[in-house]
Fold this sequence. Notes:
- The chain has 176 residues and is of the alpha+beta class.
- The protein folds into 3 domains: 30 residues; 87 residues, CATH 2.40.50.140; 45 residues, no CATH class.
- The strands form 2 sheets. It has a 5-stranded mixed β-barrel.
- The two termini are 36 Å apart.
Amino acid sequence: MHxxxxxxxxxxxxxxxxxxxxxxxGFGSLGPHPDQGIPAGTGDVAxxxxxxxxxxxxxxxxxxxxxxxxxxxxxTLHGPVELTVDGYDGAAQEGDVLSVYGxxxxxxxxxxxxxxxxxxxxxxxxxxxxxxxxxxxxMRLLRHWRIDLLRLQARPRSRxxxxxxxFESEGEESDA
Length: 176
């Protein structure tokens, strides 16, 4: 009975991971199609600027100048691209990250339709808070559950363990 459950769980896990992998490959193979709602990105603009003139694009980059407003976008394959952003009335400072949806114009210009600004210093705060939250969840998981990696099972503990005893197994827990 237990072997059947373990085999069933293993098959379900393999199917779900396979579906996730297929979705990642499928999404990664999508190219820009502005007429279908998939605008060219920063890498597309860096590789073939003239191909996307007059079309909608979605680019992002770090603000390198505020007068005029210029962003520097990074492309993994084609290097950096610097663009001037027209039509953005909001406040931006050097170091901020802008996500710009707009129309690509001549002379390295994007006519902004929608702009989202992320303050430059917010990335460290976000990463630190995410790390702290992840560690808190991991500690709660280890305190309240026994994880059996060979059987792919998690069983609740009879009572939560203390921090000093976190790596002891269920049989080694003290009753005091």
